[in-house]
Amino acid sequence: MAHHQIVIVGGGTAGITVAARLRNAAPSLDVAIIEPSEKHYYQPLWTLVGGGLFKPEESGRDEADVVPYGVKWLKDRVETFDPNSNTVTTASGEKVTYDYLIVAPGIQINWDKVKGLKESVGKEGVCSNYSINTVASTWEFIRNLKEGVALFTQPAGAVKCGGAPQKICYLAEDHFRRSGVRDKIEVIFTLAGPRLFAVDKYREVLEKVAQRKGVEPRFRHNLVEIRSASKEAIYRHMDTDEEIVIKYDMIHVTPPMGAPDFVSSSELAGEGGWVDVDKHTLQHTRFANVYALGDASSLPTSKTGAAIRKQAPVLVSNLLSNMNQEPQVASYDGYTSCPVVTGYDSLVLAEFDYSGQPAETFPFDQAKERFSMFLLKKFGLPAMYWHGMLHGRV
Ligand code: FAD
């Protein structure tokens, strides 16, 4: 049985960022990360991979290269939590005990919640930016479509980066226009929700973007089945339960997502199966030595890497205070950000907090589409991620 002072479950965006910050703050800490994957991905790039601007492999690095110096990497998968005995059990059967636990295994993609999706994704016009294994198919099908119906979906419930389903739709539309086939393609964006974006300031702009591009949003449409043989997408209307069938020539699916099963079935779970933490301190509501951040946490904000950038310093400050038996005074305000790509040279940089109020970084109106913000997304943010955030510097 291994023991570490601090055990982090998940070496994705949240796990690595928080590990780096812990080591920077107190190099003598004994920190271990349990993470099964050999590769670490900067997933926000997948929008641009789907849009043909990067190759899939440009979004990844070896996990071994991002685990901070001095942090132990246990290449394994956690299967169960026993917070009453400060123990996690891994797939290989090992029990790892801890003084403090940080839970950051991300969100689970539930491909099988749409009938026929698992079998068809990546083939015959069905694509998705939500996996490294299928993201290349998005660009393949966008590039090869010369006429017909291009369909884009957004499911009910939480997804990572709520604006991402729209981004790929706008990129595709821009590509069709630039390559001279736009008038032969109908672009449809279907979503289970009732509006394009949660925050009014950005929603109003995005409604105009969709209108200008001739992209017709169909609200309250929840994708339930893909019939790939007949190229039909089957929806249930969220209010009337009516079945709606739309024929497609290509379809980009944003799959349903949810709390990871091993979290939702554990004692750490709260409502919806997420790790139940205080929305300001990030400390677990029942187990004082447990914290969570990122997509698997119950934090009621839009699930993004940008949010994690602001959550990580709060978590580290409070955890160190807890270890020193001092009051936990750091507070997370729900900050999150969604760079909504609206074309190959334009972007709306949405930033807001728990109150739904814009919390913008730049001294100009970020609801306006800008080329400079597109360049930030394409070049600035990836550099900031790999060289700053994962080192606990920004
Ligand atoms: P992840 O980064 O997903 O990491 C979770 C880690 O936990 C993984 O490495 C996984 O292998 C590991 N894990 C899973 N199960 C276990 C287990 N049982 N035991 C141990 N480890 C486990 N965010 C933005 O800020 N801006 C954007 O523009 C943006 N665009 C996006 C576009 C797309 C297409 C996608 C897919 C995401 C986008 N995001 C964006 C969201 C962002 O990538 C996520 O919010 C962020 O990666 C979440 O970090 P995380 O650490 O919680 O989860």
UniProtKB/TrEMBL annotation:
<dbReference type="GO" id="GO:0071949">
    <property type="term" value="F:FAD binding"/>
</dbReference>
<feature type="domain" description="FAD/NAD(P)-binding">
    <location>
        <begin position="5"/>
        <end position="299"/>
    </location>
</feature>
<dbReference type="GO" id="GO:0070224">
    <property type="term" value="F:sulfide:quinone oxidoreductase activity"/>
</dbReference>
<dbReference type="Pfam" id="PF07992">
    <property type="entry name" value="Pyr_redox_2"/>
</dbReference>
<keyword id="KW-0874">Quinone</keyword>
<protein>
    <submittedName>
        <fullName>Sulfide dehydrogenase [flavocytochrome c] flavoprotein chain</fullName>
        <ecNumber>1.8.2.3</ecNumber>
    </submittedName>
</protein>
<dbReference type="InterPro" id="IPR023753">
    <property type="entry name" value="FAD/NAD-binding_dom"/>
</dbReference>
<dbReference type="GO" id="GO:0070225">
    <property type="term" value="F:sulfide dehydrogenase activity"/>
</dbReference>
<dbReference type="InterPro" id="IPR015904">
    <property type="entry name" value="Sulphide_quinone_reductase"/>
</dbReference>
<keyword id="KW-0560">Oxidoreductase</keyword>
<keyword id="KW-0809">Transit peptide</keyword>
<dbReference type="InterPro" id="IPR036188">
    <property type="entry name" value="FAD/NAD-bd_sf"/>
</dbReference>
<dbReference type="GO" id="GO:0048038">
    <property type="term" value="F:quinone binding"/>
</dbReference>
<keyword id="KW-0285">Flavoprotein</keyword>
<dbReference type="GO" id="GO:0070221">
    <property type="term" value="P:sulfide oxidation, using sulfide:quinone oxidoreductase"/>
</dbReference>
<keyword id="KW-0274">FAD</keyword>
